[in-house]
Amino acid sequence: MLTAQRRELLLERLHRDGRIVAADAAADLGISEDTIRRDLRELAAAGLCQRVYGGALPASPATSPYDERTRIEPESKHRIAVAAAALIEPGATVLLDGGTSTLALVGALPRSLHATVITHSPTIAVALAEHEHIELQLIGGRVYRHSMVTCGAIAVEALREVSADLFFLGVTGVHAEAGLTTGDSEEAAMKRALARSAAETYVLASTEKIGAASTYRVMSLDEVAGVVTDADAASPAMRELDRAGVRFVSAR
């Protein structure tokens, strides 16, 4: 079997099963595990899968540049934004992560909402500037341009004085085994710091993020109050998340 044919079969298996177990794939194709692992390294280098111990998981398209991400699943993000906005009570203190899903949430907030919003995203802060009833606080720090958010010691230190009601978390992957993941280690650490500063954390998960994984773990699934998504509850990835005990906030 040609290398290209073998890798195409691996990608078909990944799409069908939501994972590749190297030992099983090697047995089914009658080749060595070393060959499978080499194939998975090449596929991961091309951004076609996320390698994990013993195999691979689907790679998240949400790790692409910010401008490209604004064009990924915009309708899904809008539905999620509407459902997430309904969770915010008048007078609440809310932490907002950066990213395109959170930007959609800002667009879904009623202009009459009285609340305090704290964010580490300059993009989110600018989008909130015209919401005259929202008290807006911006956390400073080193800017991570890929997501247009601040990270690092200065930002984490500022969060020590924050005690919010809700945190809306953006991730690039939501997977029953890998948990909640993103593509940068410092951004993952900042997301954990934000979650520690809120009573409840809700994940904003548009369709392409369900069943996908990225390199760095943010949190485990049992550390969040719920996942706001419009993904099909009957899909294999959603069924696995349900079996893992995830609470969903439906945006369908």
UniProtKB/TrEMBL annotation:
UniProt GO MF annotations: DNA binding; DNA-binding transcription factor activity
UniProt KW keywords: DNA-binding, Repressor, Transcription, Transcription regulation
Keyword NAD included in the entry's annotation: no
Keyword Chaperone among record annotations: no
Pfam family name, one: HTH_DeoR
InterPro entries recorded: Carb_Metab_HTH_regulators, DeoR-like_C, DeoR_HTH, NagB/RpiA_transferase-like, Tscrpt_reg_HTH_DeoR_CS, WH-like_DNA-bd_sf, WH_DNA-bd_sf
Record domain HTH deoR-type: where: 3-58
Role this protein plays: Repressor of the lactose catabolism operon. Galactose-6-phosphate is the inducer.
Protein name: Lactose phosphotransferase system repressor
